[in-house]
Fold this sequence. Notes:
- By secondary structure, this protein is α+β, with helices and mostly antiparallel strands.
- It has helices spanning 16-21, 66-79; strands at 30-34, 40-44.
- Helix content is 25%, strand content 12%.
- The protein has a domain at 1-47: Pemi-like Protein 1, Chain: D, CATH 2.10.260.10.
Amino acid sequence: MPAATLTSKGQLTLPKRIRELLKLETGDTVEFIVSADGTVQVRAGSFDARDLRGMLKRAGRKAVSLGEMDAAIAAGRRRQP
Length: 81
C-alpha cells in the first residue's frame, strides 16, 4: 500500500504510483473529501478538458446542436420551482 510521510511543514509527497493513478502532473491540484464518518478520499482537482472528448458519444446517437441545448436548458429552468 503506498504511503506518504508528513513533514514538519505539513507537506506530503504523493507516491509515484498514486500520482500516475490520478494522472497528476506538476501544478495540478489535489482535493481531499472528508466524509461524515471521518474517511478521506483523494482525487485530482484539475484535469485537461480534452480528456472529456468522446465521453458521451454512443453509437447511433445524433449530435445535438447548440440551439437544441439552449432549448433543453430553458425547459429545465421552467420546470424548477
